[in-house]
Specification:
The complex is a heterodimer of chains A (624) and B (201). Chain A has a domain at 1-237 and 518-624: Cytochrome C Oxidase, Chain A (Up-down Bundle), CATH 1.20.210. Chain A is 64% helix and 2% strand. Chain A contains 18 helices and two strands. Chain A has helices at residues 3-13, 19-24, 28-56, 67-102, 110-132, 157-185, 198-229, 243-260, 263-277, 284-297, 313-343, 350-373, 375-381, 385-415, 421-447, 464-494, 577-594, 597-615, and strands spanning 554-558, 565-570. A two-stranded antiparallel ribbon of chain A has the order 1-2. Chain A is globular and about 80 Å long. Chain B has 201 residues and is mainly alpha-helical. Chain B has one domain (21-51, 64-200): Four Helix Bundle (Hemerythrin (Met), subunit A) (Up-down Bundle). Chain B is elongated. The chains are: A mainly alpha (624), B mainly alpha (201). Chains A and B meet through helix 6, helix 7, helix 8, strand 2 and helix 18 of A and helix 1 and helix 4 of B.
Chain lengths: 624, 201
């Protein structure tokens, strides 16, 4: 296609390289990169907090940090990792790659995309501003009432917990809505739902879970704040309140959240395994169905976090059985991956190493999860290091390892440079060995009776050696992660040029340049199979140049089932409105923490003004 | 590739496609879904607290009459918005549509004023600080009122929207605002049922 068309498309889609352009951009590639970079900064912050705690726990009766600091540290570590790292890093992949995978030029709501990024960052800043005042949240990432009530937790800590999380909820929900509509509406013609890459299914499932589950966190947070500041009685027993209501609402949100941070990670594995095994995924429909069933069943298991509150046999049996059912769906996926490796000709790249580590850790974490789903065992190990070991095996095994697999697989597309395979494998082995040295002993510590969330322990219990081992392991793990970061920066400087498709992969993102141009592809691709780059059909075949769509910021809307062309979608361009609205909301939630109600009211009015400014019609590029 | 000439997907001609007018609609449907779950969680909390405390048979049940009048106002506003707002836009009678939106907005404001007045009346024997019943009762009412305010803000936006070329975003703003308004009304039906009718039975 002529250079003139490319020039025209670039003008239409590229953000200007100015300061305003930097803040106003709605390009999903820029925002996806920012999401990923931010999430990794959050990961490092949470990691450093973990290492400080491990130093404190190295031996008995240490006083490296005070008990109060320890409480804030484990809370901030949990919140940072679970809320601000684990889901946003996956959102980063989705925001960058979903439009490329579906052959669209951007997500359905580009400005909403910018808004969710700014609110993500600002909610993190809101959370950590409390650390400078020494008043961080201190009640764990699940903050069970009534300990969090004003009478037992004075100060600003728990208000920060509530307000920063509600701001994050807005961000997460907006992102999920954006992804759902994009996947169901903007797929390339021919990509019917039976031909969607597995990653799209896992992203879709995650997004639906967010839409359904997140409001429960908002409601619980609002109740808590009302109790703390505005003398209501949701969780105070004295006036007929019920602290268990917090647990019901919170875990109704938080267990699906576990799948929110896990399912897209399985999607990444299902994308890269076929590429490195040089064959299509075994059991595609079963993998897709079990992904969705995991999401669905994930709504029926929240009570397994509450077995020790006292409830009927019937309820416990139901939720115990539902929890075990989940393992069937996970097992289906694991067997499909093993079969893909078995039937293919696996190439052990660095990405495959991380994927293999993921499967190993997931199976260990999953098995001790099944053990914990048995009610009497749960009573025994509840709130011990056994649970801590389980959740780190499934979260680090089920999120961090696949995310690194995804990075080694997808970063060449994002940066245009290859990372060192050798250093990648070193990083994997150091991380994998360090992780197991660090976290396996925690199973034993838990069975020996060491409770979680204690800042130290007496020497007589004989927990020293295992704790020392765990500390050494966690530092080795940290070194392993650091090696990958070094690898990343080295590749930026002198990595080999990646080219369009360095792995000879099968999905549409690899049909674009590395890094992709602002408009991504000249012709919106057409698709006839699940592996578009492995079949005989030419995605760009467009004899009448119908799919160039250069009369504005346009992309193609298709039917959700068959992906038949339906209409031309016009997407909005750069705008500062998302940033302004996020800043005003940041001010609102900050004022609510400080209890400056007049400032909060002013912020509400300003947010309405920003919203009007946002949606007020403006002339668009390419419209005469 | 040479094989590509033979495998061309049978698709309608893209050149003849119209501009997508429904992209915004799906977003607002998803907003409604997540807000719907917000109210599901609120109603769950209402019944959960009731069940655990063994009372909800409050001594002075909330006044049913007021709630039913409010229900009538909101339902009427939805009908007005549908018949005089959306239908008028379909017939391209934009002046009439603006009048319909303004009438809806007026009904919404009457609703808010009356609801505020009814809360003022019930305040003498029940406040959010009285007990968990008072807390959840007023919280649900205020959550709903906040949604009525948001719906009203959407209608104000539509009311003053200039008539431009149809390509400009947002797509079909009146349709999105209407969907949201109907949702807010539908929630009030459940509020009346759970918070007002059940305690009076």
């Amino acid at each position: 296609m002529s250079a003139a068309v490319q020039q025209h498309l670039t003008e239409m889609w590229e953000s200007p390289h100015t300061i305003r352009g930097w803040f106003a951009t709605v390009d999903h590639k820029t925002l996806g990169k920012r999401y990923l970079a931010s999430a990794f900064i959050f990961l490092l912050v949470g990691g450093v907090e973990a290492l400080i705690m491990r130093i404190q726990l190295t031996g008995a009766n240490q006083s490296f940090i005070s008990p109060e600091t320890y409480d804030q540290l484990f809370t901030m570590h949990g919140m940072t990792m679970i809320y601000w790292y684990a889901a946003p890093v996956l959102s980063g992949f989705s925001i960058y790659f979903v439009p490329l995978l579906i052959g669209a030029r951007d997500l359905a709501y580009p400005r909403l995309n910018a808004f969710t990024y700014w609110t993500l960052v600002l909610s993190f800043i809101l959370l950590y501003l409390s650390s400078f005042a020494g008043q961080s949240p201190h009640a764990g990432w699940f903050a069970h009432a009534p300990y969090t009530e004003a009478a037992y937790s004075p100060g600003y800590g728990m208000d920060v917990f509530v307000m920063s999380l509600i701001l994050l909820t807005i961000s997460t929900t907006g992102g999920a809505i954006n992804l759902i509509v994009s996947i169901l509406r903007l797929r390339a013609p021919g990509m019917s739902i039976s031909k969607m890459p597995v990653y799209l299914y896992s992203t879709l499932t995650m997004s639906v879970l967010i839409v359904v589950a997140m409001p429960a966190l908002t409601v619980a947070g609002v109740f808590l704040e009302l109790d703390r500041r505005y003398s209501t009685h949701f969780f105070t027993v004295a006036r007929d309140g019920n602290p268990i209501l917090w647990q019901q609402l919170f875990w109704f949100f938080a267990h699906p959240w576990v799948y929110i941070v896990f399912l897209p990670a399985t999607g990444i594995i299902s994308m890269l395994l076929p590429v490195f095994c040089r064959r299509p995924l075994v059991g595609y429909p079963y993998v897709v169905l079990s992904t969705m069933m995991t999401g669905l069943t994930g709504f029926g298991v929240w009570v397994h976090h509450m077995f020790s509150i006292g409830m009927s046999q019937m309820a416990m049996s139901f939720f115990s059985a539902a929890s075990m059912t989940i393992s069937i769906f996970t097992a289906i996926q694991v067997f499909a991956w093993v079969a893909t490796i078995w039937k293919g000709r696996p190439i052990l790249t660095a990405a495959m190493h991380w994927a293999g580590g993921f499967m190993a850790l997931l199976v260990i974490g999953g098995l001790n999860g099944i053990v914990s789903a048995v009610v009497p065992v749960d009573w025994q190990v509840h709130d011990t290091y056994f649970l801590l070991a389980h959740l780190h095996y499934v979260l680090i095994g089920g999120n961090v390892f696949p995310v690194f697999a995804g990075l080694y697989y997808w970063l060449p597309k994002i940066t245009g440079r290859m990372m060192s395979e050798r250093l990648g494998k070193w990083s994997f082995w150091v991380s994998f060995i360090g992780f197991n040295i660090g976290f396996f002993p925690m199973h034993l510590l838990g069975i020996a009776g060491m409770p979680r969330r204690i800042y130290t322990y007496p020497a007589e219990l004989g927990l020293d050696s295992l704790n020392l081992t765990a500390t050494i392991g966690s530092f080795i793990f940290g070194v392993g992660i650091l090696l990958s970061i070094v690898n990343f920066f080295k590749s930026l400087r002198n990595g080999a040029i990646a080219g369009k498709d360095p792995w000879k992969a099968d999905t549409l993102e690899w049909a674009t340049d590395s890094p992709p141009s602002a408009y991504e592809v000249v012709h919106i691709p057409s698709v006839t199979s699940r592996s578009p780059l492995w079949d005989d059909h030419d995605e760009n075949f467009d004899p009448y140049n119908e799919r160039i769509l250069d009369q504005g910021r346009l992309t193609l809307a298709t039917t959700w089932l068959d992906a038949k062309p339906l209409a031309i979608s016009r997407l909005p361009g750069d705008s500062l409105a998302p940033l302004w609205l996020s800043l005003v909301l940041f001010l609102f939630f900050g004022a609510m923490i400080m209890h400056w109600l007049w400032v909060a009211l002013a912020a509400v009015i300003a947010s309405v003004a920003c919203a009007y400014y946002w949606v007020w019609p403006k002339p668009q590029k390419g419209v005469a | 590739m040479s094989a590509s000439q033979t495998i061309v997907p049978q698709t309608p001609s893209i050149a003849n496609l119209k501009t997508d007018q429904d992209l915004g609609k799906y977003g607002i449907w998803l907003v409604i879904s997540t807000e719907g779950f917000l109210f599901v969680d609120l109603f769950f909390s209402y019944f959960y607290l009731a069940n655990r405390t063994g009372r909800w048979n409050v001594e002075i049940p909330p006044k049913l009459g007021f709630a039913l009048i409010l229900l009538a106002i909101l339902l009427a506003s939805s009908v007005v918005l549908h018949l005089f707002g959306e239908k008028a836009v379909e017939k391209e009678k934009y002046g009439a549509a603006r009048a319909g939106v303004a009438a809806t907005l007026l009904l919404g404001l009457i609703f808010l004023a009356l609801e505020g007045y009814s809360m003022y009346l019930s305040w003498s024997n029940l406040t959010p600080a009285t007990d968990s019943y008072g807390s959840i009762f007023y919280t649900i009412l205020c959550f709903h009122a906040a949604h009525v305010i948001v719906g009203s803000l959407m209608l104000i936006y539509v009311l003053f929207l200039p008539l431009g070329p149809s390509e400009t975003t947002p797509h079909r703003p009146l349709h999105s605002a209407t969907l949201y308004w109907h949702f807010v009304d539908a929630v009030w039906i459940f509020v009346v049922l759970f918070l007002f009718i059940l305690p009076n039975l």
